[in-house]
Specification:
Elements lengths: L1 H31 L7 H15 L8 H13 L3 H4 L7 H11 L1 H32 L20 H47 L3 H25 L1
Helix pairs in contact: 1-3, 2-3, 5-8, 6-7, 6-8
């Protein structure tokens, strides 16, 4: 009778130890979820150990060996992995997303630089030329200035001047339309890249960091081009 009770107690103790091991393992797996991409092999190994244990007989269950295997598996993490069990910062998450979409990022940034440069050139020139046209005596660019025609009447000169100013005004209007068009293309590029950010960023902080990084690079690229021109 005592032998049977002793065997029952041992079985219960083993079952309790196994339960504690499984609970402990569950906690470890939970902590590793944030690093699932790097720790897939480790998690698979731990799950295989537990599965094997749960499907074995009482006689085959060796709790000390199981604990040792789990401990060794966790210790196989390199120091860098062990020090990064906490969730990544928003900067790190944003950097990972940027690396994963570097091709799309580069293409969109190049297009944004191209359209912004054209928008800036057209809008700047249009503003300067409008100021020229608003003067009491409009200042025309060299290509539109009247050439002296011997014997031409003042009335004809006045008509030709008005035509030149009208042509200049039309060109300014065309520049303004072009500027608006290029500005819209810039906005479309921004909308496209933001949609990609929304698809990849899983939280608001990471999305905000990606947007800030995008805006920073958009401001830098045209400046570098300008200095080299």
């Amino acid at each position: 009778m005592e032998l049977k009770e002793t065997k029952t107690r041992k079985t219960n103790n083993k079952q309790q130890e196994l339960t504690e091991v499984v609970n402990d393992l569950t906690g470890k797996v939970g902590k590793l979820e944030v690093k699932i991409d790097q720790q897939y092999t480790l998690i698979q190994e731990l799950l295989n150990i537990v599965t094997k244990c749960l499907h074995s007989t009482d006689e085959e269950r060796n709790i000390p060996i199981l604990l040792k295997k789990i401990s060794e598996s966790v210790d196989n993490l390199n120091p860098q992995d062990r020090s990064h069990r906490e969730p990544d910062s928003k900067e790190t998450r944003a950097a990972k997303i940027k690396r994963s979409m570097i091709k799309e990022w580069t293409i969109h940034l190049s297009n944004h630089k191209k359209w912004f440069t054209r928008y800036h050139n057209n809008s700047t020139r249009a503003a300067i030329y409008k100021e020229w046209c608003s003067r009491e005596k409009p200042l025309l660019p060299i290509r539109l200035r009247l050439k002296t025609v011997p014997g031409q009447s003042k009335e004809m000169i006045s008509i030709r001047t008005k035509l030149a100013v009208h042509k200049f005004t039309a060109q300014i209007g065309s520049m303004e339309l072009n500027a608006e068009c290029f500005q819209n293309r810039c906005a479309n590029v921004n909308n496209d890249i933001m949609q990609l950010f929304l698809e990849k960023a899983l939280d608001g902080e990471t999305l905000e960091k990606l947007e800030l990084e995008w805006k920073r690079e958009c401001k830098e690229r045209p400046k570098r081009v300008g200095k080299g021109s």
